[in-house]
Amino acid sequence: MGGPAGSLVKPARPGPTTPPLDCGHIQVTTPPAPFRSDKLMVMCRLKTRWTFLAAVAVSAAIVLSVYAVVVCPPPGNEPELVVRVSEVRPVKPNTWLVPAAAVAGGAEGRHVIRLNYLRAQRVPVEVVGRRAGDLVVRGGRLKAGDLVVVPPANVPPRSALAPEGGVSHERLIGLVLEAGLRAARAKNLAESLRFISPGYRDQWGFNRRLLGAMLKTAFQRFDSPRIDLASPPLIEVQGDRARVRLAMRLTAVYAGRRNYLLGDDRAPNQVMVELSRTDKGWKISRVSGLRPLGFEPKFLRMLGAEVGVALSRAEKMRRRTDCMRCKRRMEKRFLGQ
After folding, report:
1. pTM of the predicted model, to two decimals?
2. For residue 42, is pLDDT > 50?
3. Which CATH architecture has domain 80-165?
4. What is the 3-state secondary structure of the chain?
């Protein structure tokens, strides 16, 4: 989509130029008129001053670039803390058993770090007993099955966590899917990309960057996304690879009306999610089977062209027709036309 054409401006005719001075190696040609050496020295000082300022500007730009990359990482690149976790076990109402190494604090109070959608959450506890290497604690905010960090030292509240051990890989993968779906429901792009592998590639030409652009576009166009699973995920782990089968429905609000984007009231959309184990835990490396608005999965390439997916010549010729089909289906589902 282009803006209005700008007016044509006739370039100014260049005037006479003066050969540049190089303060390191000054070369002076015979001038057409007598010249003064003190004038040459002033010009050289000016050039030296501008060279110094340019060097300062370049240095500042480099420092700011490093700061932007290291201190202020782009969306989806927030540093994650790799941690081990342990499951909270019930003893009696409001009383729990946790590893002694999971409890931190001193006279001012004790606490544990609980995983909350793969974020660190500080939960106060009261130690009331000991059993072997575990502590018996009271804490109204804990519940059976919660996972706590072992040990919790140097884990700030709200920090991004990548649990690597302490429970089964199936449980860890379930945490990634749960946190990813929550981030998508909240239209939180940076948090959604946390769970996407840097090496993400799928059969439709999306990498992590293009997938992020696609999610951003979807979050801008649709409101209040709602993701429902028709059945529990089926997780298969083979070494450092895993496959998860999801039966899901996705609805969202467009033009004031809610309707289906994936699946419908008759059947869910069967989706395959592949994950790989990285040094930051399990990450999504490939998704297949998505059928937006009920179209065949290859239609995703047409939608992806809007954010940079490269189409073949035949696909470019077919795109206009396919986009008209999409527009008509959108109008029928969301506008009732």
Report:
1. 0.75
2. no
3. Beta Barrel (2.40)
4. CCCCCCCCCCCCCCCCCCCCCCCCCCCCCCCCCCCCHHHHHHHHHHHHHHHHHHHHHHHHHHHHHHHHHHCCCCCCCCCEEEEEEEECEEEECCEEEEEHHHCEEECCEEEEEEECCCEEEEEEEEEEEEECCEEEEECCCCCCCCEEECCCCCCCCCCEEEEEECCCHHHHHHHHHHHHHHHHHCCCHHHHHCCECCCCECCCCCEHHHHHHHHHHHHHHCEEEEEEECCCCEEEEECCEEEEEEEEEEEEEECCEEEEEECCCCCCEEEEEEEEEEECEEEEEEEECCCHHHCCCCHHHHHHHHHCCCCCHHHHHHHHHHHHHHHHHHHHHHHCC
CATH of domain 169-335: 3.10.450.50
- Is the separation of the CB atoms in 243 and 274 below 8 Å? yes
pLDDT at 318 (0 to 100): 86
Phi/psi at 38 (nearest 5 deg)? -70, -30
Domain with CATH 2.40.420.20 in the chain: 80-165
Amino acid at residue number 268: P
pLDDT, average across residues 297-317: 87
Domain(s) labelled CATH 3.10.450.50 in the chain stretch across 169-335
pLDDT at position 181: 95
Tell me: pLDDT of 28 over 50: no
